[in-house]
Amino acid sequence: METAGVDAGEATARPPVVWPGLDGVAGRRFDLLVIGDVRLEVRAELRGMRFTDLTADRLAYADASAVVAGTAVNMARSATAYFRNVGLFTRIGDDDHTGSIRRELSRIGVRDLCRVDSGMPNGVAVMVRDDAPAGPGVRLLIAARNAPSRRLSEADVRRAAAEIRAADVVFLDGYALLSPISRAAMCAAARIANESGTLVAFDLVPHDIDGRVPRCEVLPLLALTDVVVTEAATVARLLEAPPPVTSAEARELPPLLDRSVGGRPLWLLRFGETNLENVLAYRRGEGGGGLQLEYASGYGEGVERAGFGDRLASCELYWWLSARSLG
């Protein structure tokens, strides 16, 4: 939980998993606006079965659940443990699931700023993870192409400009880059935030974004951000560099980031055996200063992988904002 009497130097000297930690804080601070994807998601884990073993149709009984999820909901849900106010802005559908989405946002304490796309269905995703002798197994994620969030427009964002300006930080993610309509909306949101002093955090996903979106469509948005959360391997592939696994390899990325991306974002680079065990926090400084801090994320054997990345990102954002406010 949050401790008192922490100054800016202490906040950045200690890794965020030490302070404020991964379990939330007693005194929530700052206002966060999340813009992204909302879906109904069916989740299942196949015990004792690998995808590579499936050579014919198979009936499997497994623990399965249907939840309100999507990148925006998942991040907002974790952020409520740290932030005073969390809002979620996107487009959602107009069907039998709309009420479930709104009830879930209310239940988790997230301000519902969603625009209903009249007559359109909500997005659906299916996530199945197989079993593995070691590690979390392989995840198969199937997402419907017609999710309403892909139609979030620049006009929508302009109508939400007051919410963006009022927030301390707005959190965006790269799935919006897969549609030219929502891609333009994300850029508009970042520009409004830049002009008003609201900070911009960006989650660079999907992890194979280098094969889905031209680099020239990604780098301009990164230049508008203050914090980039990503797997080191993802940004390395985007910049046509070898994906790092070890600490020494991860530390070769900062000079390449400096040459390739404008601005001075704080990079939170995940790396390790499963791309989640370790983090290199790096920010280019002015006059030779800056930040370079490496720490264990807290992820390992026995830790639930689902939702861990959002918990970690929420913790890191709170850590960074606290250091800025004390500096």
UniProtKB/TrEMBL annotation:
InterPro entries: PfkB_dom, Ribokinase-like. Keywords: Kinase, Transferase. GO terms for molecular function: kinase activity. Signal peptide: none annotated. Residues 65-242 form the Carbohydrate kinase PfkB domain. This is Carbohydrate kinase family protein. It comes from Actinomadura rudentiformis.
